[in-house]
Every structure is written in structure tokens, then in C-alpha cells.
Amino acid sequence: MDIADQIKTIEEELTRLNVTLIAVSKTKSNEEILEAYHAGQRAFGENMVQELVEKQEALPKDIEWHLVGHLQSNKVKYIAPFVALIHSVDSLKLLKEIDKQAKKNNRIVDCLLQIHIAVEDTKFGLDHIELIELLRSEEFAHISNVRIRGLMGIATNTSNPKEIREEFRELKSLFDGIKVSFFKDAVYFDTLSMGMSSDYKIAIEQGSTMVRLGSTIFGSR
Ligand SMILES: *Cc1c(COP(=O)(O)O)cnc(C)c1O
């Protein structure tokens, strides 16, 4: 199947399930992205700041750009003017920098807090204790131009579906707990970004509201 067919097929499936599709276009050309765009896709995800900025400049302005990969504080300024959602906030330091750059641009920037759910410690993200500490901190209370929309997690890269299911289940239960404890009246706290090409079906079964699909749409990298 080509990119347009793939977008249409997956979008139809996800719409029925009320799940948002982020088409992860890292390493893919502008032509390939436009193919998805012309099939109706508007939300795209990248994991490198420079690539994200170059594509944003070159491609249609109604594309909603998501940063899904690790973000260094010193690069926030390049994406703060336009980014739709940062999926990968993993420290208070980074959150404060996003807040600062959001203010400079007179924007509210939507973010997800990335939670470490995989067994591999090469993956980024906050553990449960760090998450609670961040949300309870004095400094967090002073952040005004960032809106925390929810959580994101990347499961272990394994062929064992039981393990993946367990990790997603844990993330969903953390999401529900955090919502009740810290975001009770915040209707905007509604996003649980979990699931990639290899595991998105399990993620949806466990309550994902947003999946990040690269190779399923664009082919292997
Ligand atoms: C690359 C990437 C994806 C998409 O991966 P696929 O396996 O190609 O679907 C999703 N999330 C993050 C954070 C990524 O870096």
C-alpha cells in the first residue's frame, strides 16, 4: 500500500476508536510528507529539532508539528514559536525553559510529561516519584505558559506482548491517578500518547488516546 492508502485505512480505524494519529515523519522527505498531507493528514511528529524546523519552514502552514523525541533545553527556542505538542518533557528544568520561551512568543505551549515505563534504562522519562515531585513543586505552580495535556510513554522494545501490555496498563493507571490528584478540573488533561507501529494495537486496548506511527505509514526507515 502507498502512503495515501495507508493513511486513509489507519485514520478510518483510529477515528472509530477515538484515537488521534500522529504521523511520525522523521528521516522522510517533504514529498512523502505531502503525500500524507494530501490524503488528509495534518498532525506530524519529528524527533530532531533541526529536522522539525526545516520541515516546518518548507511545508504547508496548517500542519500541526509534534516533537516526539528527546528535547534539550537549549533547543526549545527554535520550536517554541510553532510547536503544537511536545511529547517528551522529562524534567522541571526543561519545563521552565519551555515556559520561558512560550512567554517570549506570547503563546501557551501544550506538553506531555514523558514517563519511563520500559525496562531498558536507555529510554528517557520520569519515574513515578519524580513525576509526583515535579507536580508538587513550588516551581511547577509558577509555570504559566505551559499546559500539561497528559502523559507519554514508550514501551520496551520486545516481542513479548504480555510485557508491553503490562507497561501500557501501568501508564494508563498512572494517568488516571494523576488526573484525579492533580488535574481534577482540568478538562484539557485528556491525552495519553502511547503506541508506535509495533505496539499500537496493545496501546489502544489499554486506553491510549494518541498513537505515534512512523513505519506503518511511511514504510521502514
Ligand atoms: C520514531 C518514533 C516513533 C515511530 O516509530 P515507528 O516504530 O516507526 O512507528 C514513535 N515515537 C517516538 C518517540 C519515535 O522516536
Overview of the molecule:
The protein is of the alpha/beta class and 221 residues long. It has one domain (3-218): Alanine racemase (TIM Barrel). The protein has 10 helices and 8 strands. It has an 8-stranded parallel sheet with strand order 7-6-5-4-3-2-1-8. Strand 2 (43-46), helix 3 and strand 3 form a beta-alpha-beta unit. The longest helix is centred in the last third of the chain and has 22 residues, at 161-182. The radius of gyration is 17 Å and the shape is globular. The two termini are 16 Å apart. The model has no long low-confidence stretch (mean pLDDT 97). The structure holds pyridoxal-5'-phosphate. The site of pyridoxal-5'-phosphate (PLP) has 14 residues, from strand 8 and helix 10.
Which key phrases capture this entry?
about 220 residues; alpha/beta; TIM Barrel; eight-stranded parallel sheet; 10 helices; binds pyridoxal-5'-phosphate
Summarize the structure.
By secondary structure, the chain is of the alpha/beta class. The protein has one domain: Alanine racemase (TIM Barrel, Alpha-Beta Barrel), CATH 3.20.20.10.
Q: What is the total number of structural domains?
A: 1
Please give the largest β-sheet. 8 strands, parallel
Uncertain segments = none
Structural class: alpha/beta
CATH level-four homologous superfamily name: Alanine racemase
Instruction: Tell me the CATH architecture.
Output: Alpha-Beta Barrel
Radius of gyration: 17 Å
- The total count of strands amounts to 8
What is the H-and-E element order?
HEHEHEHEHEHHEHEHEH
